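1st attempt posting a full record on here, be nice pls
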Amino acid sequence: MGCFQGRPLSGEEQEALKQQREANKKINEQIKHDRRRFKSTHRLLLLGAGESGKSTIVKQMKILHVDGFNDEERKAKIVDIRSNIRESICVWTHKYHNISDNKIRSFQSNSHKYEV
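the predicted structure (as tokens):
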């Protein structure tokens, strides 16, 4: 017999001990799972002055890698996208006309050099 042998446990005490062991096992498994999940998480520190786009990057990462857009967000962005396309076309055509006009003027002013 050992030095620390106590009285035998009753059925209720054995059942309570068994439940405690099961609860402890579940808690330890949850801790291991959480630890693995935490270690696999990538963390990024964004530094920059105000209005430098930190929040924009976070929003874009969320959209691309988490849940994307829902139908309401897609519909709300259609107007913005069309406006951006229209504005870009206007800017490009305006710049193209300015470049073309300058080339034509330059050609006309230099054309007298090549007259025979």
